[in-house]
Amino acid sequence: MKLLAVTAALGLTSTVSGCLLEREIAAEREYALTGKRSEYHAPPSSRQASTTFPIGEGDRFAGGCVTPVGLGVNDRDLESVLAVKEVGSALKGLRRGFPDKVQLFEPPFETYEGRKFPGAIVGDNPRVFIMSGIHARERGGPDNVIYFLADLLAAQKAGTGVTYGDKSYSAEDVEKALSAGVVILPLTNPDGVAYDQTTDSCWRKNRNPESAVGAANGRDIGIDLNRNYDFVWDYNKHFYPGTDPASDDPRSEVFYGTGPASEPETEAVVWTVDQYQNITWFMDLHSYGPSLLYAWGDDETSTENPDENFVNPEFDGKRGLVGGPDPPNATYKEYFLESDLEIETEVTNAMVASMLKSGGSEYTNYPAVGLYPTSGASNDYAMGRFYGNVSCGASRMFGLTMEFGEPSSSFASCPFYPDADEYHRNVRQVGAGFLEMMLRAAGEAGDPLYAEC
Q1: Which residues cross the membrane (predicted)?
Q2: For 258-312, what is each residue's pLDDT tens digit?
Protein backbone atom coordinates (compact mmCIF):
# COMPACT_ATOMS: atom_id res chain seq x y z
CA MET A 1 0.00 0.00 0.00
CA LYS A 2 2.84 2.41 0.77
CA LEU A 3 4.36 1.92 -2.68
CA LEU A 4 1.06 2.61 -4.44
CA ALA A 5 0.36 5.63 -2.26
CA VAL A 6 3.76 7.15 -2.89
CA THR A 7 3.50 6.48 -6.62
CA ALA A 8 0.23 8.37 -6.77
CA ALA A 9 1.48 11.13 -4.51
CA LEU A 10 4.52 11.86 -6.65
CA GLY A 11 2.60 11.66 -9.90
CA LEU A 12 5.07 9.10 -11.18
CA THR A 13 2.53 7.49 -13.48
CA SER A 14 2.11 10.59 -15.61
CA THR A 15 3.98 11.34 -18.83
CA VAL A 16 7.11 13.46 -18.61
CA SER A 17 8.43 15.35 -21.60
CA GLY A 18 11.07 17.95 -22.39
CA CYS A 19 13.78 16.39 -20.20
CA LEU A 20 15.67 13.19 -21.01
CA LEU A 21 14.56 10.25 -23.10
CA GLU A 22 11.39 8.63 -21.84
CA ARG A 23 13.19 5.33 -21.24
CA GLU A 24 15.74 7.12 -19.06
CA ILE A 25 13.04 8.87 -17.05
CA ALA A 26 11.13 5.62 -16.63
CA ALA A 27 14.21 3.82 -15.40
CA GLU A 28 14.91 6.48 -12.78
CA ARG A 29 11.29 6.44 -11.58
CA GLU A 30 11.29 2.66 -11.35
CA TYR A 31 14.42 2.74 -9.24
CA ALA A 32 13.10 5.46 -6.91
CA LEU A 33 10.06 3.32 -6.15
CA THR A 34 11.32 -0.26 -6.26
CA GLY A 35 15.08 -0.14 -5.88
CA LYS A 36 15.39 -1.92 -9.25
CA ARG A 37 16.66 -0.55 -12.54
CA SER A 38 16.07 -1.40 -16.15
CA GLU A 39 17.99 -0.04 -19.13
CA TYR A 40 19.30 3.37 -17.96
CA HIS A 41 20.99 4.38 -14.74
CA ALA A 42 23.45 6.95 -13.46
CA PRO A 43 26.55 4.80 -12.96
CA PRO A 44 28.56 5.05 -9.76
CA SER A 45 32.18 6.06 -9.97
CA SER A 46 34.79 3.32 -10.20
CA ARG A 47 37.56 5.52 -8.76
CA GLN A 48 37.11 4.77 -5.06
CA ALA A 49 37.98 1.66 -3.15
CA SER A 50 35.34 -0.99 -3.66
CA THR A 51 34.08 -0.82 -0.07
CA THR A 52 33.57 2.97 -0.10
CA PHE A 53 30.12 4.13 -1.14
CA PRO A 54 30.75 5.58 -4.61
CA ILE A 55 29.97 8.99 -6.07
CA GLY A 56 27.28 9.12 -8.74
CA GLU A 57 28.52 10.09 -12.19
CA GLY A 58 25.21 10.65 -13.97
CA ASP A 59 22.11 12.56 -12.91
CA ARG A 60 19.55 10.29 -11.33
CA PHE A 61 17.08 13.19 -11.15
CA ALA A 62 17.34 13.87 -14.88
CA GLY A 63 17.78 17.61 -14.62
CA GLY A 64 14.79 17.88 -12.30
CA CYS A 65 12.43 15.57 -14.20
CA VAL A 66 12.63 12.88 -11.51
CA THR A 67 11.45 13.63 -7.99
CA PRO A 68 13.72 12.39 -5.17
CA VAL A 69 12.30 9.68 -2.90
CA GLY A 70 13.81 9.18 0.55
CA LEU A 71 14.22 6.08 2.68
CA GLY A 72 11.40 7.03 5.03
CA VAL A 73 8.80 6.15 2.38
CA ASN A 74 10.76 3.51 0.45
CA ASP A 75 13.80 1.95 2.10
CA ARG A 76 16.12 0.68 -0.62
CA ASP A 77 19.66 0.86 -1.99
CA LEU A 78 20.39 4.48 -2.97
CA GLU A 79 23.36 3.25 -5.02
CA SER A 80 25.73 6.23 -4.71
CA VAL A 81 26.45 9.57 -3.04
CA LEU A 82 24.94 12.57 -4.81
CA ALA A 83 27.39 14.31 -7.10
CA VAL A 84 27.56 18.10 -6.92
CA LYS A 85 25.47 18.63 -10.04
CA GLU A 86 22.76 16.32 -8.70
CA VAL A 87 22.01 18.57 -5.72
CA GLY A 88 20.46 21.32 -7.81
CA SER A 89 18.80 18.73 -10.01
CA ALA A 90 17.24 17.07 -6.95
CA LEU A 91 15.80 20.38 -5.74
CA LYS A 92 14.31 20.99 -9.19
CA GLY A 93 12.82 17.51 -8.93
CA LEU A 94 11.20 18.40 -5.62
CA ARG A 95 9.78 21.55 -7.17
CA ARG A 96 8.43 19.56 -10.11
CA GLY A 97 6.90 16.91 -7.85
CA PHE A 98 5.40 19.34 -5.32
CA PRO A 99 4.90 22.65 -7.16
CA ASP A 100 2.40 23.94 -4.62
CA LYS A 101 4.76 23.25 -1.70
CA VAL A 102 8.35 23.89 -2.83
CA GLN A 103 9.90 27.17 -3.88
CA LEU A 104 13.48 27.37 -5.13
CA PHE A 105 15.99 30.17 -4.62
CA GLU A 106 19.66 31.00 -5.03
CA PRO A 107 21.55 33.48 -2.83
CA PRO A 108 23.16 36.20 -5.00
CA PHE A 109 26.72 34.94 -4.61
CA GLU A 110 29.10 32.72 -6.55
CA THR A 111 32.05 30.65 -5.37
CA TYR A 112 35.61 31.23 -6.53
CA GLU A 113 35.02 28.65 -9.27
CA GLY A 114 31.69 30.19 -10.28
CA ARG A 115 29.23 27.81 -8.63
CA LYS A 116 25.91 28.85 -7.07
CA PHE A 117 24.07 27.71 -3.94
CA PRO A 118 20.70 26.18 -4.84
CA GLY A 119 18.18 26.17 -2.00
CA ALA A 120 14.55 25.34 -1.34
CA ILE A 121 11.78 26.66 0.90
CA VAL A 122 8.68 24.92 2.21
CA GLY A 123 6.14 27.10 4.02
CA ASP A 124 5.32 30.81 3.99
CA ASN A 125 7.03 31.68 7.28
CA PRO A 126 9.64 28.97 7.82
CA ARG A 127 10.92 28.42 11.35
CA VAL A 128 13.73 25.96 10.51
CA PHE A 129 16.95 26.41 8.57
CA ILE A 130 19.11 23.41 7.61
CA MET A 131 22.51 23.65 5.95
CA SER A 132 25.07 21.00 5.08
CA GLY A 133 28.16 20.34 3.00
CA ILE A 134 30.27 23.06 4.62
CA HIS A 135 33.23 20.67 4.96
CA ALA A 136 33.85 19.03 1.62
CA ARG A 137 34.94 15.57 2.75
CA GLU A 138 31.89 14.96 4.98
CA ARG A 139 30.13 12.89 2.37
CA GLY A 140 26.38 12.37 2.43
CA GLY A 141 25.35 15.62 4.15
CA PRO A 142 23.44 17.10 1.19
CA ASP A 143 21.90 13.69 0.51
CA ASN A 144 20.55 13.47 4.06
CA VAL A 145 18.89 16.88 3.81
CA ILE A 146 17.34 16.30 0.38
CA TYR A 147 16.03 12.81 1.11
CA PHE A 148 14.56 13.97 4.43
CA LEU A 149 12.56 16.75 2.82
CA ALA A 150 11.53 14.41 0.00
CA ASP A 151 10.18 11.96 2.59
CA LEU A 152 8.01 14.57 4.31
CA LEU A 153 6.58 15.96 1.09
CA ALA A 154 5.82 12.53 -0.39
CA ALA A 155 4.21 11.30 2.83
CA GLN A 156 2.12 14.46 3.18
CA LYS A 157 0.82 14.20 -0.38
CA ALA A 158 0.00 10.50 0.08
CA GLY A 159 -1.52 10.99 3.53
CA THR A 160 0.90 8.51 5.11
CA GLY A 161 3.63 8.56 7.73
CA VAL A 162 7.34 7.84 7.45
CA THR A 163 9.49 5.09 8.96
CA TYR A 164 13.21 5.11 9.71
CA GLY A 165 14.40 1.74 10.94
CA ASP A 166 12.31 0.93 14.02
CA LYS A 167 11.06 4.50 14.43
CA SER A 168 7.76 5.43 12.78
CA TYR A 169 5.94 8.74 12.51
CA SER A 170 2.27 9.16 11.70
CA ALA A 171 0.67 11.20 8.96
CA GLU A 172 -0.28 13.68 11.68
CA ASP A 173 3.37 13.96 12.71
CA VAL A 174 4.34 14.69 9.12
CA GLU A 175 1.70 17.42 8.84
CA LYS A 176 2.82 19.02 12.08
CA ALA A 177 6.49 18.91 11.14
CA LEU A 178 5.87 20.55 7.78
CA SER A 179 3.71 23.22 9.40
CA ALA A 180 6.91 24.61 10.92
CA GLY A 181 8.25 25.44 7.46
CA VAL A 182 11.86 24.89 6.46
CA VAL A 183 14.60 26.51 4.40
CA ILE A 184 17.42 24.29 3.15
CA LEU A 185 20.84 25.02 1.67
CA PRO A 186 22.03 21.46 1.11
CA LEU A 187 25.45 22.27 -0.36
CA THR A 188 27.25 25.29 1.08
CA ASN A 189 30.74 24.39 -0.18
CA PRO A 190 30.21 23.22 -3.77
CA ASP A 191 33.77 23.92 -4.95
CA GLY A 192 35.28 21.94 -2.09
CA VAL A 193 32.89 19.04 -2.53
CA ALA A 194 33.50 18.91 -6.29
CA TYR A 195 37.25 18.80 -5.67
CA ASP A 196 36.99 16.14 -2.98
CA GLN A 197 34.70 13.97 -5.10
CA THR A 198 37.10 14.02 -8.03
CA THR A 199 40.36 13.62 -6.09
CA ASP A 200 39.47 11.55 -2.99
CA SER A 201 41.83 13.88 -1.14
CA CYS A 202 39.86 14.16 2.13
CA TRP A 203 39.48 17.88 1.40
CA ARG A 204 37.88 20.09 4.09
CA LYS A 205 38.07 23.74 3.01
CA ASN A 206 36.74 25.72 0.07
CA ARG A 207 38.94 26.26 -3.01
CA ASN A 208 39.78 29.96 -2.75
CA PRO A 209 43.54 30.20 -3.51
CA GLU A 210 44.00 33.87 -2.72
CA SER A 211 45.78 33.26 0.61
CA ALA A 212 47.87 30.32 -0.56
CA VAL A 213 51.60 30.51 0.18
CA GLY A 214 52.86 27.97 -2.34
CA ALA A 215 52.85 24.82 -0.23
CA ALA A 216 54.06 21.86 -2.26
CA ASN A 217 51.10 19.67 -1.29
CA GLY A 218 48.49 22.33 -2.13
CA ARG A 219 46.88 22.12 1.30
CA ASP A 220 47.30 25.88 1.73
CA ILE A 221 44.46 26.52 -0.70
CA GLY A 222 41.10 27.39 0.79
CA ILE A 223 39.40 28.62 3.94
CA ASP A 224 37.67 26.61 6.66
CA LEU A 225 34.18 28.00 6.21
CA ASN A 226 33.19 27.00 9.73
CA ARG A 227 35.78 29.42 11.11
CA ASN A 228 34.73 32.27 8.82
CA TYR A 229 31.50 33.52 10.43
CA ASP A 230 31.30 36.84 12.23
CA PHE A 231 31.38 35.45 15.75
CA VAL A 232 34.57 36.13 17.74
CA TRP A 233 36.30 35.61 14.39
CA ASP A 234 39.48 37.36 15.53
CA TYR A 235 40.51 34.58 17.88
CA ASN A 236 43.86 36.20 18.69
CA LYS A 237 41.88 39.03 20.27
CA HIS A 238 38.98 37.17 21.83
CA PHE A 239 40.55 33.92 23.09
CA TYR A 240 43.16 33.08 25.67
CA PRO A 241 46.57 32.63 23.99
CA GLY A 242 47.25 29.06 22.97
CA THR A 243 43.65 27.86 22.91
CA ASP A 244 43.79 27.89 19.08
CA PRO A 245 40.10 27.69 18.09
CA ALA A 246 41.16 28.56 14.51
CA SER A 247 44.33 29.48 12.63
CA ASP A 248 45.74 32.36 10.61
CA ASP A 249 48.05 29.99 8.73
CA PRO A 250 46.65 29.15 5.25
CA ARG A 251 48.26 25.71 5.49
CA SER A 252 46.01 24.83 8.43
CA GLU A 253 42.79 22.87 8.07
CA VAL A 254 41.11 25.53 10.26
CA PHE A 255 42.41 28.64 8.44
CA TYR A 256 39.86 31.35 9.17
CA GLY A 257 40.22 33.51 6.06
CA THR A 258 41.03 37.16 5.53
CA GLY A 259 38.13 38.58 7.53
CA PRO A 260 34.76 37.65 9.03
CA ALA A 261 32.41 36.40 6.30
CA SER A 262 35.11 36.94 3.69
CA GLU A 263 33.88 33.98 1.64
CA PRO A 264 30.84 33.87 -0.67
CA GLU A 265 29.87 30.52 0.88
CA THR A 266 29.52 32.24 4.25
CA GLU A 267 27.74 35.23 2.73
CA ALA A 268 25.21 32.90 1.10
CA VAL A 269 24.19 31.47 4.48
CA VAL A 270 24.04 34.89 6.16
CA TRP A 271 21.97 36.29 3.29
CA THR A 272 19.53 33.39 3.52
CA VAL A 273 18.83 33.70 7.24
CA ASP A 274 18.48 37.46 6.75
CA GLN A 275 15.56 36.84 4.40
CA TYR A 276 13.49 34.84 6.89
CA GLN A 277 13.05 36.60 10.19
CA ASN A 278 10.90 33.82 11.68
CA ILE A 279 13.69 31.23 11.65
CA THR A 280 14.11 29.96 15.19
CA TRP A 281 15.94 26.66 14.63
CA PHE A 282 19.32 26.58 12.89
CA MET A 283 20.90 23.23 12.03
CA ASP A 284 24.37 22.74 10.56
CA LEU A 285 24.92 19.13 9.46
CA HIS A 286 28.41 17.62 9.70
CA SER A 287 30.19 14.31 10.12
CA TYR A 288 31.57 12.32 11.82
CA GLY A 289 31.21 11.04 15.41
CA PRO A 290 27.51 10.49 16.17
CA SER A 291 26.57 13.48 18.30
CA LEU A 292 24.27 16.47 18.65
CA LEU A 293 25.89 19.70 19.79
CA TYR A 294 23.96 22.53 21.39
CA ALA A 295 24.62 25.86 23.16
CA TRP A 296 27.88 27.74 22.61
CA GLY A 297 31.06 26.52 20.94
CA ASP A 298 33.48 29.24 22.06
CA ASP A 299 33.29 28.46 25.77
CA GLU A 300 31.22 26.76 28.42
CA THR A 301 27.65 27.96 28.93
CA SER A 302 26.26 29.83 31.93
CA THR A 303 22.76 31.06 32.71
CA GLU A 304 23.90 33.37 35.51
CA ASN A 305 25.71 36.49 34.27
CA PRO A 306 24.41 38.30 31.14
CA ASP A 307 27.54 40.47 31.12
CA GLU A 308 29.63 37.44 30.20
CA ASN A 309 28.97 37.56 26.48
CA PHE A 310 30.98 37.59 23.29
CA VAL A 311 30.48 41.29 22.57
CA ASN A 312 31.81 42.44 25.95
CA PRO A 313 35.46 43.53 25.48
CA GLU A 314 36.10 43.08 29.20
CA PHE A 315 36.44 39.35 28.56
CA ASP A 316 38.64 39.51 25.48
CA GLY A 317 41.60 37.19 25.83
CA LYS A 318 39.80 35.05 28.38
CA ARG A 319 37.68 32.73 26.27
CA GLY A 320 38.31 29.12 25.40
CA LEU A 321 39.85 27.89 28.65
CA VAL A 322 37.43 25.03 29.04
CA GLY A 323 38.40 23.20 32.21
CA GLY A 324 41.64 25.13 32.04
CA PRO A 325 44.00 26.25 34.76
CA ASP A 326 42.86 28.46 37.63
CA PRO A 327 44.29 31.04 37.39
CA PRO A 328 44.19 32.55 34.86
CA ASN A 329 40.61 33.51 34.09
CA ALA A 330 39.17 30.05 33.58
CA THR A 331 35.86 31.19 35.04
CA TYR A 332 34.46 32.89 31.89
CA LYS A 333 31.31 31.24 30.55
CA GLU A 334 29.14 32.40 27.63
CA TYR A 335 25.72 33.56 28.80
CA PHE A 336 22.61 31.69 27.66
CA LEU A 337 19.00 32.11 28.77
CA GLU A 338 18.08 29.29 31.11
CA SER A 339 14.85 28.66 29.18
CA ASP A 340 16.79 28.39 25.89
CA LEU A 341 19.27 25.95 27.41
CA GLU A 342 16.41 23.81 28.71
CA ILE A 343 14.75 23.75 25.30
CA GLU A 344 17.93 22.84 23.43
CA THR A 345 18.69 20.09 25.96
CA GLU A 346 15.18 18.66 25.79
CA VAL A 347 15.03 18.72 22.00
CA THR A 348 18.43 17.11 21.52
CA ASN A 349 17.47 14.46 24.10
CA ALA A 350 14.42 13.64 21.98
CA MET A 351 16.48 13.62 18.80
CA VAL A 352 19.00 11.21 20.30
CA ALA A 353 16.26 8.84 21.47
CA SER A 354 14.67 8.80 18.02
CA MET A 355 17.98 8.35 16.21
CA LEU A 356 18.99 5.46 18.46
CA LYS A 357 15.73 3.71 17.56
CA SER A 358 16.16 4.31 13.84
CA GLY A 359 19.68 2.96 13.39
CA GLY A 360 22.81 1.47 14.87
CA SER A 361 25.03 4.46 15.67
CA GLU A 362 24.98 5.44 19.35
CA TYR A 363 24.30 9.18 19.34
CA THR A 364 24.91 11.43 22.32
CA ASN A 365 24.24 15.12 22.96
CA TYR A 366 26.40 17.70 24.73
CA PRO A 367 27.34 21.41 24.59
CA ALA A 368 29.16 22.35 21.40
CA VAL A 369 32.33 23.40 23.23
CA GLY A 370 32.63 19.80 24.42
CA LEU A 371 33.91 18.87 20.97
CA TYR A 372 36.57 21.62 21.14
CA PRO A 373 36.45 25.44 21.45
CA THR A 374 35.76 27.18 18.15
CA SER A 375 35.65 30.69 16.74
CA GLY A 376 33.72 31.84 13.69
CA ALA A 377 31.36 28.83 13.71
CA SER A 378 27.98 28.88 11.98
CA ASN A 379 25.72 27.90 14.88
CA ASP A 380 27.38 30.38 17.25
CA TYR A 381 26.89 33.09 14.64
CA ALA A 382 23.22 32.16 14.31
CA MET A 383 22.60 32.37 18.06
CA GLY A 384 24.78 35.45 18.38
CA ARG A 385 22.57 37.49 16.05
CA PHE A 386 20.07 37.61 18.91
CA TYR A 387 22.29 37.34 21.98
CA GLY A 388 24.79 39.92 20.86
CA ASN A 389 22.13 42.24 19.49
CA VAL A 390 24.30 42.34 16.38
CA SER A 391 21.32 42.26 14.00
CA CYS A 392 18.50 44.65 14.81
CA GLY A 393 15.23 42.73 15.10
CA ALA A 394 16.92 39.34 14.59
CA SER A 395 14.98 36.31 15.69
CA ARG A 396 16.27 34.20 18.56
CA MET A 397 17.68 30.99 17.02
CA PHE A 398 18.38 27.69 18.66
CA GLY A 399 21.69 26.72 17.07
CA LEU A 400 22.46 23.02 16.71
CA THR A 401 25.17 21.00 15.01
CA MET A 402 24.69 17.35 14.13
CA GLU A 403 27.76 15.19 13.58
CA PHE A 404 26.36 12.20 11.73
CA GLY A 405 27.88 8.77 11.31
CA GLU A 406 30.83 6.78 12.50
CA PRO A 407 34.46 7.06 11.36
CA SER A 408 34.78 4.82 8.34
CA SER A 409 37.49 2.21 7.92
CA SER A 410 36.47 1.53 4.32
CA PHE A 411 38.81 4.14 2.89
CA ALA A 412 41.99 4.34 4.91
CA SER A 413 42.99 7.81 3.71
CA CYS A 414 39.75 9.47 4.83
CA PRO A 415 37.47 8.26 7.64
CA PHE A 416 34.75 10.67 6.44
CA TYR A 417 33.96 8.50 3.41
CA PRO A 418 31.17 6.07 4.39
CA ASP A 419 30.64 2.58 3.12
CA ALA A 420 27.21 1.52 1.87
CA ASP A 421 25.87 0.39 5.24
CA GLU A 422 27.04 3.55 6.98
CA TYR A 423 25.63 5.80 4.26
CA HIS A 424 22.14 4.31 4.47
CA ARG A 425 22.19 4.23 8.24
CA ASN A 426 23.06 7.93 8.22
CA VAL A 427 20.14 8.78 5.94
CA ARG A 428 17.73 7.01 8.30
CA GLN A 429 19.13 8.37 11.55
CA VAL A 430 19.50 11.94 10.32
CA GLY A 431 15.93 11.83 9.00
CA ALA A 432 14.59 10.74 12.37
CA GLY A 433 16.57 13.42 14.19
CA PHE A 434 15.48 16.17 11.83
CA LEU A 435 11.84 15.16 12.19
CA GLU A 436 12.01 15.49 15.97
CA MET A 437 13.50 18.97 15.59
CA MET A 438 10.77 19.97 13.13
CA LEU A 439 8.06 18.74 15.49
CA ARG A 440 9.43 20.91 18.30
CA ALA A 441 9.81 23.87 15.96
CA ALA A 442 6.12 23.59 15.05
CA GLY A 443 5.19 24.10 18.72
CA GLU A 444 5.93 26.76 21.31
CA ALA A 445 9.66 26.09 21.07
CA GLY A 446 9.51 27.52 17.56
CA ASP A 447 7.72 30.76 18.43
CA PRO A 448 9.85 33.73 17.31
CA LEU A 449 11.44 36.07 19.85
CA TYR A 450 13.10 39.16 18.42
CA ALA A 451 16.11 41.16 19.52
CA GLU A 452 15.41 44.71 20.62
CA CYS A 453 16.70 47.48 18.36
Answers
A1: none
A2: 999 999 999 999 999 999 989 999 999 999 999 999 999 999 999 999 999 999 9
- Residue in 55, 19, 58, 53 with CA at minimum distance from that of residue 37: 58
CA distance 237 to 239: 6
Residue 308 DSSP label:
-
Residues in the chain: 453
**Cis bond leading into 306, ω under 30°?**
no
431/453 Cα distance (integer angstroms): 37
DSSP at 281 = E
Position 72 scores a pLDDT of: 98
Chain segment 75-110, per-residue pLDDT in tens: 999 999 999 999 999 999 999 999 999 999 999 999
Residues of the chain with pLDDT under 70: 1-50, 324-330, 390-392, 409-412, 453
Q: What is the CA radius of gyration of the chain?
A: 21
Identify the bridge partners of residue 169 per DSSP, sorted by sequence position: 162
The separation between CA 221 and the C-alpha centre of its own chain, rounded to angstroms, equals 23
Q: Which of 181, 184, 23, 179 is nearest to 91 (CA)?
A: 184
Cα end-to-end span (Å), the chain? 54
Distances, alpha carbon 225 to alpha carbons 31, 33, 132, 239, 299, in Å = 36, 37, 12, 19, 20
Contacts within 8 Å (CB) and 24+ apart, 442-447: 442/127, 442/176, 442/177, 442/179, 442/180, 445/280, 445/343, 445/347, 445/398, 446/127, 446/128, 446/180, 446/280, 446/281, 447/280
Which residue stretches of 20-140 are H helix?
22-34, 84-97
What amino acid is encoded at 130 in this protein? I
Contact indicator for 192, 136 with CB cutoff of 8 Å = yes
Q: What are phi and psi of 312, to 5 degrees?
A: -90, 110
Q: What is the three-class DSSP state of 427?
A: helix
- Alpha carbons within 13 angstroms on the beta-carbon side of residue 34 total 10
Q: Would the pTM of this model clear 0.85, i.e. be above it?
A: yes
Please tell me the distance from the alpha carbon of residue 33 to that of residue 97, in angstroms, as a whole number: 14
Residues identified as active-site: 403
Q: How many CB atoms lie within 10 A of CB 201?
A: 16
